[in-house]
Structures are given as C-alpha cells and as structure tokens.
UniProtKB/TrEMBL annotation:
Pathway: Purine metabolism; IMP biosynthesis via de novo pathway; 5-amino-1-(5-phospho-D-ribosyl)imidazole-4-carboxamide from 5-amino-1-(5-phospho-D-ribosyl)imidazole-4-carboxylate: step 1/2. InterPro entries: SAICAR_synt/ADE2_N (IPR028923), SAICAR_synt_PurC (IPR033934), SAICAR_synth (IPR001636), SAICAR_synthetase (IPR050089), SAICAR_synthetase_CS (IPR018236). It holds the Pfam family SAICAR_synt. Coiled coil: none annotated. Belongs to the SAICAR synthetase family. It comes from Psychrobacter saeujeotis. It catalyses: 5-amino-1-(5-phospho-D-ribosyl)imidazole-4-carboxylate + L-aspartate + ATP = (2S)-2-[5-amino-1-(5-phospho-beta-D-ribosyl)imidazole-4-carboxamido]succinate + ADP + phosphate + 2 H(+). One of its GO terms (molecular function) is phosphoribosylaminoimidazolesuccinocarboxamide synthase activity. Keywords: ATP-binding, Ligase, Nucleotide-binding, Purine biosynthesis. Its EC number is 6.3.2.6. Residues 6-231 form the SAICAR synthetase/ADE2 N-terminal domain. This is Phosphoribosylaminoimidazole-succinocarboxamide synthase.
Amino acid sequence: MQKQQLLYKGKAKSVYETEDNDFLILHFRDDTSALDGKRIEQLARKGEVNNRFNTFIMQKLSDAGIETHFEQQLSGDEVLVKRMDMLPVECVVRNYAAGSLVRRLGLEEGQVLTPPTFELFYKDDALGDPMVNESLAVTLGWANDDQLAKMKKISYQVNEVLKDLFDKGDLILVDFKLEFGVFHDRIVLGDEFSPDGCRIWDKATKKKLDKDRFRQSLGDVIEGYEEVARRIGVPMD
C-alpha cells in the first residue's frame, strides 16, 4: 500500500490517502502537545514508540474479539488502518480518580472507582473538549443511541482486557480515552491506544508513566513510555 497525499494533520499524527479508498496510512510523529495544543514539543523516538505500543495493544484487542481499524504496521512510525467516518466524541473510562475528574469533583487523586465510570467528551480543541451526555450527542447528531450503546460496551470490554494486561506488568490502568468510527455501517475502534491517551501508574510507587510526565513537566517522558512497553511485552526492535 503506497502513501499518497496528506489528508489530515493532527496534533501527533498525520493521515495519508492510499490507492485503496478503504484504507489510510497513519504516521506517528514525534510531536507532543498539551493544553489543547497550546504547548507543543518534539520528543525523540516518540512516534516510533507510540506506533509500536499501539500495534501491540490493537493486536491484543483483536485477539479478544474487539474489531479495530488496525490492519498492519508498515514501518517504525507508520501503520495501515481502515478508513472510517470518525464520530466527534471521545469515550473515557476511569478506574481511579485523576485529571479532570479530580478537578471537577474535588476527589483525591488515586481514589478507586467501583464500578469504573464512563464519560463522553465532545472533540473540539477550541472549546476544550467539553464533557457531554448521551442525550446531547444524539440531539446534536454526533452519534445515535445504538452507536453510543456499542461504544460504551466496547469501552468496557477494552477496560477488562487491558486492566489484566497492565496488572501483569505491575502497572495500574488509571483511565483512558477511546475514539470510534463507522466502517461499512458498523462501529469500529479507531485512533490509537498509547501512553498519550491513558494514565498508567506503577502499582507499588504510583509513579506516573504516561503523558502526565509531559503535562506536569516531570521529565523522562519517553523513558516512561518505554518502561511501560517493556513491562507488558511490546516488541521494540
């Protein structure tokens, strides 16, 4: 599959057309952003680390019967994916309190959430990706009831698969976001799963090994990503 013209450039990935209208090529760049894109830096190796991490996770989810847009890894920083009509909402599952949930509700960071929570956020950088409910998503035409129910079901399935995977690496999956699209009239998991879009802590020390290292200027961002990758068995060669 040959990379053709640039279709879209996001904050950390570029999307290219291919000769087949059903498929696209994602290029994972070294760009890292925070504050809704207001702070952007380049971190060496990030694109390749995230691409290999995402490939590993997508294959694990596929093995568990969850359909994703992933087709195959093409190079260190490129992957072939299904071309989908993406839905403009993010699904967030939380196992522990962190991030915006702590700020909104005054919870203690690390508080266990039983059962895990499910939230929707409207994808709009200019608005700061505001939290929305399912009724708004349907009324405003972002997704229908059946699509939302499927997205919620898959999100919880992903949580069960990945909590176990990270636990075996002595890691805690604190929370994560997922994005979905429509491929040939069915809901399919899209975008990526990497430390950019989730929170992962060391089980014993609660050391943060995800993008919060960048957001909070903790340093050693990619080293944190690579530590997670090693612990869960991501092939990095």
